[in-house]
Amino acid sequence: MKLVSRFEAAARSTAELHCLLGEAKRAFTRAACGSQEHDDALESIRNIEHELAARAPRL
Question: Which of 16, 41, 47, 50 lies 20 to 30 Å from 56 when distance is taken between CA atoms?
Fold first, then answer.
């Protein structure tokens, strides 16, 4: 999986982010531990979740 940067995540819609998050999680589970794909998927998950959290309504 290609790394999803914070900049790229910010440019996507919320619906797209949820789809990308699912793809990143699947890529993470398929990749060999310690591989570049594994690391990229993990960083993508972090970036996507960070963007989704920033968009969440505050109470």
Answer: 41
